[in-house]
Amino acid sequence: MKISKREKYLLGILATVLICFGYYNFIFSKQVDKLTEKRAARDAIVAEYDQAIQDISTLEKKKEKVETLTSTIAEKTLMFYPTIMQENTILEIDKFINDSELKANLAFNPIEVIALEELTADNEIQPESSLKQYTDQGATSATTETSSVEATSTSAVTTGPTCENFKIAINFTGSYDKLKKFILSLEEYNKKIVITAMTTSAKSESEITGTLNLEIFGIPKITDQDSEYLTWTLDNVYGKEVLFSKGSANGAFNSTIEEQNTESNVNDFSMMLRSPTSELPTLTLGKANDTSRETYVYEDNSKVEEVTVEFQEENGELYYKYNTSSSFYPSDNSSTGKKFTLNSTNIGFEITSEARLGDDDNSSVKLKIINNTTKEVNITVNDDDTANPRVSVSSEGGTVNVTNK
Prior knowledge:
With about 400 residues, the protein is an alpha/beta fold. The protein has helices spanning about 5-55, 60-75, 85-100, 130-135, 140-155, 175-190, 250-260, and strands at about 105-110, 110-115, 160-175, 195-200, 210-220, 270-275, 285, 295-300, 305-315, 315-325, 330, 340, 345-350, 365-370, 375-380, 390-395, 400-405. It has seven helices and 17 strands. The longest helix is centred in the N-terminal third of the chain and has 53 residues, at about 5-55. Keywords: Coiled coil, Membrane, Transmembrane, Transmembrane helix.
C-alpha cells in the first residue's frame, strides 16, 4: 500500500504528538511533581535554618533572661524551705527553745499540701443609711451573677499552685525575756517560720505560760541553694527492737555498734555506755561487727559497774574473755576464752560514752584490761564526760594504750 507524502507528513505529526503526550504524562509530570516536592523540602529546610539562625542570634539574650528569672525566683523563695523535713524542723525548733532557755512541749500536725491564695485586702463593713437598701434593689441580679462568678473562681483556686504546710503548737513556760529571745530567734532565722497565734498568762511574778502556733511552708526550689537543709547527718539508730524486753535495745545496739565500726574496720571490741535515764542499757560490751550478737553482754546499773576483759596468747593464737557483775563471755567460762583474729596489727577496743545528764547520773564503768599477749591493746574512748568521766581503765600485763577523743 502506497502512502503519499502528505499522509507521511500527517503520520509524523501524529507520532510526534503521541510521543510528546506520553512524555508529558509519564515522565515530565512525574519529574515536575518530584521537583515540587524537592522545592517544598528545600523551603522547609531553609525556613528551619532561618529559624535556627534566629534562635542562635537570640540565644545569649535568652540565657540572660533565664539567669535573671532564676535569680529572681531564687531570691523570692530564699526564705522558704525547699520541702518540709520534719526531722530537721524538730532539731531547729529544739535549738531555738534551748537557746532561749524556755521550757516547752511540741505538738505537730501532719504535713499538708495547701493551695496558694491570692493576697486580698479585708473588706471592712461600714455603717449604711437605711435608705440604701432601696437603691441596691436594681443591682440584685448583677450582684447575684457576680457572686456566682466569684464563687466559681474561688473554687478554682484549689486546682492552682500548691505548697507544703506544716503546723507546730508549742506549750511553753518561762520568763518574758526568754519568750522575747525565742521570738527574736525566729524573726532573725534565715527561713520563714510564721507565728500565727500566741496566748500567754501569768504563772508567777517572774514567769508566764502560754501557747505559740507556728506555720512553715515548703516550696520546691530550682537551684541547690538549700542542699545543706536536705542533708540528714544523724545516722544513729535509737530506741529498742523489742520495746519492753528485758535485754533492752538489742537491735538498736547491734546496729549502733555495727555502724560504729563501719567506716574503719580496725576495732576488735566495742563498748557503749549510757545514762540510767536512757531506754538503752547503761553498758553494752561485745565483739565488733558481731551481727549475731552472741558475744554481747548487757548491764543496767545506775552505779559503778566493774568489767574485766582478759586477752591470752597461746601458740601464736589470740583468745579473749570478759565478765561483768552478772554476766560473762564465753558462757562456758573457759580458762583460755574464745579465739579471735585481729583486724589490725594490735588489739583495737573502742568505747563510746556520753556526757552526764546531772548530779544524779552516777552510772560508770571500772574497766580492767589483762593483757597476756605480745600485742598492744589500743583503747579509744569517744564522747566521755570531761568533768566526771564514766569510764576508768586499769591494766595488768602487756601494754595498754588509752586515747580520749
